[in-house]
Amino acid sequence: MTAQALPQVSRASQFRRGLKAILPILLAVTPFGMIYGALALQAGIPLAAAQSMSFIVFAGSSQFVTTQLVSQLIPGLVIVLTIFVVNLRHALYSASVAPYTQRLPFRWKAGLAYFLTDEAYAVSILHYEKEGSAGNQHWFFFGAGLGLWTCWQLSTALGIFLGAVIPASWSLDFALPLTFIALIVPALKDRAGVTASLVAGFAAVIAFSLPYKTGIIVAALIGVAAGLLVEGRK
Amino acid sequence: MSIWVVMLLGGVLTFLTRLSFIWLQDRISMPPLIRRALRFVPPAVLSVVIFQELLFRNSALDLSPTNTRLLAGVIAVIVAWRSRNPLLTIASGMAALLLLNLLFSFLGI
Asked: Considering the entire predicted model, what is its pTM?
């Protein structure tokens, strides 16, 4: 907490620093938002709902999975459960930033929790670890979160627009597995992670015909267990 | 259940997950096993969707060489692994699928 000794940085300037930190990430996020928007529309989700999902749920991977489940007419409760499981990792982020947001009033805690996406978490936790939580550091988090949020809403809108003009023969739905490949392959760094991925994938083949696509959750849990086993043996 | 109800419930659960420790830091703690397990959730879930999308056609397992989605997906995995570039991965996967489909329809397969 070295920041306490330094002169306080103003709210506006912390906010701008947060925006600046998230900016390079927005370049990578924009295409994902566009692909989501286009896929949502092609999955048969009404335009207003497709756009609203980006600010009600505001979590990329789970929105992608939702478009896939909706297009297969899966019961709503299974979709809700799947969204919940896909986003469970955010509890880790929550636990990790909690010490830094402890002294904030509840409205700030709730607001920042809404912005606690993978990307906003990544830049904010780095900032907190470097500068501590004294002063106006929460405005940095707010700046990063709002920057990402704005980008996600705009790129969703752009994608919805494109989805309406792209013909079905372009197999745009194939962008879904490709997006996931682009997200996880570079992130697989250790044997436990690779095991979790592969075991979940093979379990998915076996569990494919479980009723209501519950195979997604069952296979994912088997993959998680396999990852834990491999990690535990070290 | 309408898409709106699904989104609202999914959104509220996601928000509560994100708020959990920020709000209740002093009152709840995460069991170490859960903490370790959560790291594996994203790769596991995303892999499930990838495998199902690439290996199944019309709800049937298709491991034949005419499964162009599988071939294009494997190409994308290689590109992702070598380049670590998300955009290049998606672009080459889409291009591969388009070309393979053209090629196969040209060959009459």
From this structure: 0.87
